[in-house]
Amino acid sequence: MKKVFKYLLIGIGVVVLVLAAIAVFIAATFDPNDYKPRVIDLVKEKTGRTLALPGDIALAFFLKLGAKIGKASLSEQGSDKAFASVDSVRVSLAVLPLLHKELVVDEIAIAGLRAGIVKRKDGSMNIDDLLKQDEKKEEQPSELKFDIDHISLEDSAVTYGDEAAGKTYALQKINLDTGRVALGTAVPIDLSLNAEASEPKLNLDITLKTKLTFDPIKKQYAAEDLALNARGAALDISDLNFELRGDAEAQPDAKTFALADFSVKASGKQAGANIDIKLDAPRIALADNKLRGEKITATAKLVDAQRTVNAALALPGIEGSAQSFQTGPLQLDIDAKLAEGFVKAKLNAPLAGKLDEKTLMPKMLSSNQLAIAFDGKFGDNAMQGKLTSPLILDLDAQQLSLDKLSTDVTVSGPKLPNQRVATTLNGSTRVDLKKEAVQANVAGKLDLSQLKAKLGMIGFAKPAYTFDVDIDQLNADAYLGDANAKPAGASAAKPAAASAKPAPGGETAKAAEPLDFSALKDLNASGSLRIGALTFSNIKSSNIRLDLKAKDGNVNISPLSANLYQGSLNGSVALDAAATAPRIGLKQKLTGVAIGPLLRDLNGSDSLEGKGNVALDVTAQGTTVDAMKRNLNGTMAADLFNGAIKGINIAARLREAKATIAAFKGDAAPAAAGDAQKTDFSELHAAFVIKNGIAHNEDLSAKSPLLRLGGAGDINIPEQTLNYLAKATVVATSKGQGGAGLDQLKGITVPVRITGPFEQPQYKLDLSNLASEAAKQKIDEKKEELKARATEKLEKQLGDKLPGGLKGLFGK
Q1: Using CB atoms within 10 A as the burial measure, which of 410, 610, 660, 772 is most buried?
Q2: What is the pLDDT of residue 20?
């Protein structure tokens, strides 16, 4: 931005000089009409540009020798395209100096100046040729004395365009009036203009009044009674009102510099907030290699509907030289009142620095002890803390270092563990503004956890984060609230009146709430996290390791591994947050895991026991939890050993079946025994194919010494219901759970229909199927009985008359 306005001012200066030179030449030659073609040809010869002088030229001779040119224009080099134009130019020369062969310009008045400066895509500019001409002229001493009684510039404008960047800048409505302009003389200046820019957005009305002393020969510069005002919009600030007042003088060769009664006031609106800033610097001076400064103060205030923030800065006296300086402790106080709390902070830092001897600008700042203390309250939670570190700020390299950073923060609140969490971190932080990079190495304690972390960030507008974090133990549930923790060992049984669907306004409402992955769409991060022991959602695990990569809305966690419940977990998670409907992919393998404790800790379910393996490979897509469930697809397989299915005692159901068969036969049924409601198994296998939220199984297989269990059915995940038909068959043994007394059911398959919600499944015998099985067995028994009687009778009748070989046909 600084270069842009430099080019704009250079453009104005070049055009003014060209026009003034033409006017001086005309005035000095006394016959403007005769010399018009000569001037045009001379400009063409020297610059390759076309000068047009369609306006009238008038001369004045009384007391002052002057010329007035009407409309005029100058083309681009080697082109007829207009570069600059003017409505009128008036220049007069002092007569007496001409007698001494000296040219002294008495007045320059220009109206309606228009000029367009262009930086081409190749980096060249359309005024390069004019600047080269000026450089050649500077090499030769000029006879023109710089003593002008008056300069005026009326209703003028100059634009600057950067073709490569596609940006435009303009100074418009330029009006300038000066008093006498001469080297070493205080020149009264009254300037007004409008400044516009496309990027960054800018539209300001600017006025400047001052008495400017400018002597490049003696290198003395001063601005007295400086009054600068700017109103309008800049960046994202509207209703901007900027005021600068004071006096300034500088003699770079003598290393003398002074600011007196310097003050800045600014106000405006940004994102709905009103902003007010004030700064006062009574006096800062450097003379005889001694730097002295009085106390500098500044205040800032921000007010919007949600907050009121006040900040006050005070910098005590400054002492030093042209090479270095030091101050008393800089103090910054911040007081913010928020909608649901407040924040207060105090910064204290004695400063020292090094100065650039040529510009007298700071090139290095340091503090042997930066200290920040803060406290605040947010709703029911309160926070207190402090931060200390030496500070080094290299302004040339644009690097900030906090090499011995120490922080202590305590957060208290009714929902926190023991109502208080304390954090202590030590380490270092470095910021490189040129590279837009931040690096931090910290180690310390977070409540009961010890942690080490290496953190990084590259790019401020679109940051890319890196991390490598080690934590010895973490109970995440303690910080996420009671809703995330579930009581271990809670029963899955519910009252009989429990509905198959969640109550309106409860889980159903939550499942319909839109999922918000917006924070992940622009996330660019990669790193590793390791935790020695973790409790999350009441699940206990150890040796957790996850590696994360996220970019452009695609988040991948691979590997994701942990030890848990006597086994291990290995897998990955993938999330596409950039899609209109976010998509999640989950691949996990549990090996040697005790399922019973896992389910009890996960959701309080006590429906299954056993140890084994579970493999999961699923995807889901949707904008809500319910939509994700309804678009769940993939596979799942489980192989468990030495466990039990809880909630049903199949042995007891078989005895019910026996009673049914006894009733079918007309026999009396024995009394039922009060057995535990579970079915033991030595091994269990089930594989599921999941489509649109429905998990279908065809190959349930469970074995125990008493029975074999098969089955097929569906699990409706969105509706959280079961529809399953299990088939139990007694094997040829009376061992195992409840095996005694079931010999009569040997070989009969007993169907058990399982339906209803996950929370309260219903188990029912399929009596129609059971009756047909019992009848078939009765018929088969009668067949065997008749066969045995016939065989015995036949043997008695034939006796020993049959050969020995034929006897074998009857099993004898």
Answers
A1: 610
A2: 56
Question: Distance between CA 143 and CA 101 in Å, rounded?
Answer: 9
Q: Which residues pair with 366 in a beta bridge?
A: 352, 392
The predicted model gives 691-697 an average pLDDT of 95
In this structure, the dihedral spanned by the alpha carbons of residues 246, 251, 256 and 260, taken in order and rounded to 10 degrees, is: -10
Ramachandran class of 48: left when φ > 0, alpha when ψ lies in -120 to 50, beta otherwise: left
CB 415 within 8 A of CB 380: yes
Rounded Cα–Cα distance for residues 681 and 700 (Å): 12
Residue 730 confidence (pLDDT)? 76
Q: How confident is the model at residue 618 (pLDDT cuts 50, 70, 90)?
A: very high
Neighbours of 239 (CB within 10 A): 13
The answer to whether 659 and 603 are in contact (CB under 8 A) is no
Amino acid at 505: G
Q: What is the pLDDT of residue 611?
A: 92
What is the pLDDT of the chain when averaged over all its residues?
Answer: 83
* Distance of alpha carbon 611 from the chain centroid: 42
Residue 495 has phi, psi (to 5 degrees) of: -60, 155
Q: What is the rounded distance in angstroms from the CA atom of residue 89 to the CA atom of residue 20?
A: 8
Identify the band that residue 486 occupies on the pLDDT scale cut at 50, 70 and 90: low
Secondary structure (3-state) at 21: helix
Residue 792, C-beta contacts closer than 8 angstroms, at least 6 positions apart: none
Q: How far apart are CA 753 and CA 723, in angstroms?
A: 8
* Interatomic CA distance for residues 611 and 591, integer angstroms: 9
Encode 26-48: b = buried (16+ Cβ within 10 Å), e = exposed. Answer: bbeeeebeebeeebeeebeeebe
Residues belonging to the chain: 812
Helix or strand holding residue 750 (H, E): strand 749-757
pLDDT at position 809: 43
- Report helix, strand or coil for 76: coil
| pLDDT band at residue 18 using 50, 70 and 90 as cut-offs | low
Distance CA 705, CA 731 (A): 8
Burial of 702 from C-beta contacts in 10 A (0-12 / 13-18 / 19+): buried
Mean pLDDT within 54-82? 79
Mean pLDDT lowest among 94-108, 360-374, 494-508, 656-670 = 494-508
Closest CA to 329 of 314, 312, 344: 314
Give Cα separations from 103 to 53, 498, 638 (angstroms): 24, 106, 103
Give exposure, 500-533, as e/b (b: 16+ Cβ within 10 Å): eeeeeeeeeeebeeeeebeebeebbbbbebebeb
CA angle 659, 663, 665 (to 5 degrees): 115
Q: Considering just the CA atoms, what is the radius of gyration of the chain in Å?
A: 46
Instruction: For residue 3, give the 3-state DSSP assignment.
Output: helix
Q: Where are the domains of the chain?
A: 1-182, 772-810
Peptide bond before residue 200 is cis, with ω within 30 degrees of 0: yes
- For residue 487, the one-letter residue type is P
pTM of the entire predicted model? 0.70
